Amino acid sequence: TLFRSVSQGYKTVKERSAIARFKAAGEDAYFLVWTTTPWTIPSDQAITLAAIAPFADAPTTITGIGHIRLQESDRMQAIVNELTKMGIRCEMVRTGTSSDASAEPDSLRIYPGTPRPCALDTYEDHRMAMGFSLIGLCIPGIAIKDPACCSKTFEIYFEVLEETIVKKFKI
């Protein structure tokens, strides 16, 4: 299972992608996951999905992402830390088929809730900064502590994000 929101589910599109559907602020919301290999979510998409999961109307389980522990940061732990900081219940779980009881968790379960304003750590990880900045679009008072870490891949990310919002909402 790539993505499962208990009440809404997902549908597979061409074996390597899934469209997740859920309610966010009373509106239908969609998230497209395109994978490079069947049934694995790339780490940047896992972070983005985790960032929007609190706005779903049911718990979200993101499976098969144990590999993101070995990226620029331990992204699974970083996600848990920052969602917990915002008051969102989030836990690492093991959903893989390994019979080894000592196997590391390979999935995240994130429960719906309203994130509390706070300053988020990036762990010097550009994907954490970019993915979690999306929460700030919905919740006033969310701050990214080290936005400059995005210079690794997208130096002007926050400028482009702000410009996009200004154009979209004519602010």
Please tell me about this protein's structure.
The radius of gyration is 16 Å and the shape is globular. The chain has helices at 43-52, 75-85, 126-133, 157-169; strands at residues 3-5, 10-13, 17-24, 27-34, 60-62, 90-93, 107-110, 119-120, 143-144. The protein has 4 helices and 9 strands; from the N terminus they run ββββαβαβββαβα. By secondary structure, the protein is α+β, with helices and mostly antiparallel strands.
Order of helices and strands: EEEEHEHEEEHEH
Oligomer: single chain
The whole-number mean of residue pLDDT values reads 78
Instruction: Characterize the largest beta sheet: strand count, sense, and whether it forms a barrel.
Output: 4 strands, antiparallel
Radius of gyration: 16 Å
What's the total count of β strands?
9
Structural class: alpha+beta
Q: Give the DSSP E fraction (strand runs of 2 or more residues).
A: 15-25%
Please report the distance between the alpha carbons of the first and last residues. 40 Å
Q: Report helical residue fraction.
A: 10-25%
Outline: globular
Low-confidence stretches: 1-19, 34-39
Strand order of the biggest β-sheet = 1-5-7-6
Please report the number of helical segments.
Answer: 4
